[in-house]
Amino acid sequence: MSKFLRSLGLLGLLVVAGAAFWLVRIDELKAAGPRTDYFLYLVALLVAGILVARWPRLSGTLLVLACVEFAWGLGSWALSPPGSPSLLPSVSHEPPRFEWHPVLQAAPVPGLSFKSATGLAIRHSSQGTRGRDPDPARLAGSGVVATFGGSATYDIGNGEGDTWPERLDEALRDDRLLVVNHGVPGYTTAEHVLQTAFYPEKFGKAPRCAIYFVGWNDLRNAHIPNLDPAYADFHLPSQVDSLKVRRVGGSNVTISPLLTVLARLVSAEVDTVRYAKDPYALQPAGGSDPAQAAIFERNIRAISAINRTRGTPTLWVGQVVNRDRLKGDGLYGWLPRVRDRDLWPLLQQSNALLERTAKALGDTYVALPADAFGAADFVDEGHFSAAGARRLAALLAPVVRETCR
Question: CB pairs under 8 A, 24+ apart, for 131-139?
């Protein structure tokens, strides 16, 4: 039995080494990082199993554990669609970008500065906005233009200096206007109501005007049964895991897939912030969703009313997406019940509703020409490339200059 267990352990080491070599070849494993620690953990289990082979029960337990950890880790990664979460740790370590917030669920970590795994320079200001702290002299002599939105406003596809709010800021510098980026990945108009009501001021100055680049994230809630008026049944709880602000469980991944699964099971039972209900198990639905559209319109009116009482002009911008990537019957993942081919038509309806409502309220609406943006202006289904960010800023600058002066 001891000889068999040693042979089994050596075979396991060969398999793990082969898998590691393969991942290195496809640039999915680096010299150091969480994924490297995972492979070292597997090696430690296998070596320990070989060394205690004279005690079959202990050795067998260690070898079975190594097999389970290998199968869950590599297996979940291999079977998941590209970019989807799995039990396999990430290639490299990144500091948390977001932290739990009692009102917004998740908010940017103030003062953060690092280079992402994809090589992008990410910086948060001391006030928790995307970008650097403004120069004090310029801040004192400029009116603040606040931008609100989700990941396309946070601009996850671009590094420091290349986001469209920063490009817009450059274009408006001579107009004595300074752009502050309030965008946070995943945020919908539900979060923007809260941001507008309670957190519009940054760096001690209220915004002279506010830009809202919205629509896409609200459609995440399309066709959710019995939709909560504040998106509190699915979207808001899901933000805790989407932005990885849960302390234990959730989307957090340890070097042990087994420990990760156990932590998630415990968290599901004892954590005050429960996991969101799972609409991904439901079949996709076509057409519009009047219930979601009504909530979207109500939030637009609420934001506009809050800004109007403060004398803050509101600019609404309908979103555009990469239509070349959204043509099939599949689901790219963020919207649980909307097929790829249905997203753009649904977003067009949302933009039309936004335009009608904005004009009825006396706000400014900016209609982005869909044909002005091509595949090269995006890095994925709808987040801008550096070229797309420059294009958007150029389209917005004249309107913002006129409205916010």
Answer: 131/160, 131/163, 131/165, 131/166, 131/180, 131/181, 132/160, 133/203, 134/178, 134/180, 134/203, 138/178, 139/178, 139/203, 139/205
Question: 276 by DSSP, 3-state: which?
Answer: coil
Question: Tokens for 350?
Answer: 């949302």
Whether 145 contacts 400, CB under 8 Å: yes
Rounded Cα–Cα distance for residues 188 and 219 (Å): 9
List, for residues 154-204, the tens digit of each pLDDT value: 999 999 999 999 999 999 999 999 999 999 999 999 999 999 999 999 999
CB-CB contact of 144 with 208 (8 Å): yes
Burial of 206 (0-12, 13-18, 19+ CB in 10 A): middle
pLDDT tens, position by position, 103-161 = 999 999 999 999 988 889 999 999 999 999 999 999 999 999 999 999 999 999 999 99
Q: 25-36, pLDDT tens digit by residue?
A: 988 898 888 999
Token readout for 390 is 């420059």
In degrees, rounded to 5, the angle at the alpha carbon of residue 115 between the alpha carbons of residues 73 and 333 is: 50
At 147 the three-state DSSP class reads strand
What is the sign, positive or negative, of the torsion defined by CA atoms of 149, 152, 158, 161?
Answer: negative
Mention every residue, 6+ apart, whose C-beta is less than 8 A from residue 405. Answer: 175, 177
